[in-house]
User: Which sequence fits this backbone?
C-alpha cells in the first residue's frame, strides 16, 4: 500500500475565524493572529468590510456564497445597524434551514423577507424585546451563536430562552468559549441565558487555532498508511472535531502530542469503531471512508443533521462507498460500514461531491490509496481548505 507523509501547519479554523471576525467588526482594534483563505472566511471578510462603509438607511447587498455561518452570523450582524440589507447566497444555501432568522429578528424589531435571491433584512438596530428572546436551536446552533456573537455594545440587558435541545451544542459551547476569552460576560441557568448591557472587547489580540476539521482530513491519510506531523496543534481545543484524536485511539491509530506538535502514524491493524457524531458531524464523510479500511463493521451514528449539510452527507457518503465496492448501510442518523484491509479496486468511476467540500476530501482518501476516481468539481474544497490537494498530493 502507498505510504503517506506530511509535515506542516494547517490554516486557521474557518469556524473560529468567522466567529472572531464578527467580534472584530465591533472592535476593529482587535488583532487576529492566524488566517484562512477559504471561501467562507473570504465572503465574510468582504461583507464586513462593506458593512463598515454602510451609511444609516442605505441599501446594501452582501454575497454569502455557500457559507452557513457566513449567512447566519451576518444576518444578525447587519440587523444591529440601520438600513436595508440583502444577503445573497447560492440556491442550496438558501434551501438550508433559515426560518429561525426571521423568528429571531422579529423579536429584535427587524423585518425579514425571504426572497428567491436571498434574505432581505430591514432594521433600525436592535430593539429591546419586552419578554426577552425565545428561539429554537433544533435545526442548528448557528442561530444561537449568531445572537451571542452580536451582543456587544448593547444598550439593554438581554434574556435568551432556548426551546428544546441545542443541535451540535459543542459548536455553541465553542462560541461561548471564544466570547468569554474576549471578555463577554454572561450567565446561564439551564436553557436560559442572560447577557448584561454595554459590554466591550477586553483583549488586544486573539490567536485563532488551526482548523481541526481540515487537519483531521489530512491526518486520516496517515491513519491508513504513513505518518503526519502537525505544527501548532492546540493543547486544549474547544473545536468539536478535536474528538478525532479519541476516535483515532479507538481505531489503533497512534497520535502523540508533545508541546505544540501532534504526530499521527498508522497501526498494523486498523480497528472498526462505533462513534457518536452528534457533536462532531463534520468528521463523518472522511471518517466513513477511513472506517472502510478497518477490519470489521463500524457504526457512525447520532447525527441526523447530516442530511441538511452542504449535501445530504449520509446519502452521498453511502453513494461514494458503494461505487468503490464497499458494503455500507445508511441510517437516519449515520452509516454502517463493513471495512476491509486495503483497496480492492473496482472499475474507474466518476464521483460528484454535490458541491460538498468534505465529500471531495473523502473521495480523495480512496483515490490516494488506489481506487481510480475522477472527482467532479475538485475546487469545491476551497469552501474550507483551498490547500487540501497540495497537502495530500492527490491529482483530482
Assistant:
Amino acid at each position: 500500500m502507498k505510504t503517506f507523509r506530511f509535515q506542516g501547519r494547517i490554516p486557521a479554523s474557518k469556524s473560529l475565524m468567522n466567529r472572531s471576525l464578527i467580534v472584530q467588526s465591533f472592535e476593529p482594534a482587535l488583532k487576529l493572529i492566524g488566517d484562512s483563505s477559504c471561501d467562507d472566511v473570504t465572503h465574510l471578510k468582504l461583507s464586513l468590510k462593506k458593512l463598515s462603509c454602510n451609511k444609516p438607511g442605505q441599501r446594501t447587498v452582501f454575497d454569502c456564497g455557500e457559507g452557513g455561518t457566513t449567512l447566519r452570523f451576518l444576518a444578525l450582524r447587519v440587523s444591529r445597524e440601520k438600513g436595508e440589507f440583502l444577503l445573497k447566497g447560492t440556491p442550496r444555501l438558501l434551501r438550508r434551514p433559515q426560518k429561525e432568522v426571521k423568528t429571531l429578528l422579529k423579536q429584535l424589531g427587524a423585518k425579514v423577507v425571504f426572497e428567491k435571491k436571498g434574505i432581505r433584512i430591514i432594521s433600525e438596530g436592535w430593539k429591546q424585546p419586552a419578554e426577552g428572546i425565545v428561539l429554537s436551536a433544533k435545526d442548528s446552533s448557528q442561530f444561537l451563536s449568531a445572537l451571542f456573537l452580536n451582543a456587544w455594545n448593547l444598550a439593554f440587558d438581554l434574556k435568551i430562552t432556548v426551546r428544546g435541545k441545542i443541535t451540535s451544542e459543542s459548536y455553541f459551547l465553542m462560541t461561548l468559549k471564544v466570547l468569554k476569552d474576549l471578555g463577554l460576560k454572561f450567565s446561564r441557568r439551564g436553557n436560559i441565558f442572560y447577557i448584561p448591557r454595554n459590554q466591550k472587547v477586553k483583549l488586544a489580540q486573539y490567536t485563532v487555532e488551526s482548523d481541526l476539521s481540515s487537519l483531521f482530513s489530512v491526518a486520516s491519510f496517515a491513519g491508513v498508511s504513513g505518518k503526519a506531523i502537525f505544527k501548532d496543534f492546540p493543547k486544549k481545543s474547544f473545536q468539536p472535531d478535536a474528538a478525532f484524536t479519541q476516535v483515532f485511539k479507538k481505531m489503533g491509530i497512534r497520535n502523540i502530542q508533545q508541546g505544540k506538535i501532534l504526530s499521527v502514524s498508522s497501526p498494523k491493524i486498523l480497528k472498526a469503531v462505533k462513534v457518536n457524531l452528534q457533536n462532531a458531524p463534520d468528521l463523518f464523510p472522511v471518517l466513513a471512508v477511513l472506517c472502510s479500511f478497518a477490519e470489521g463493521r463500524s457504526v457512525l451514528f447520532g447525527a441526523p443533521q447530516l442530511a441538511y449539510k452542504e449535501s445530504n452527507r449520509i446519502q452521498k457518503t453511502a453513494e461514494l462507498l458503494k461505487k468503490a465496492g464497499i458494503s455500507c448501510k445508511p441510517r437516519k442518523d449515520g452509516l454502517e460500514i463493513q471495512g476491509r484491509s486495503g483497496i480492492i479496486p473496482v472499475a474507474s468511476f466518476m464521483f460528484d461531491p454535490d458541491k460538498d467540500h468534505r465529500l471531495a476530501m473523502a473521495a480523495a482518501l480512496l483515490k490516494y490509496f488506489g481506487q481510480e476516481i475522477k472527482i467532479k468539481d475538485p475546487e469545491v474544497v476551497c469552501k474550507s481548505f483551498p490547500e487540501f490537494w497540495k497537502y495530500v498530493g492527490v491529482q483530482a
Remarks:
- The chain has a mean pLDDT of 95.
- The CA atoms of residues 235 and 259 lie 7 Å apart.
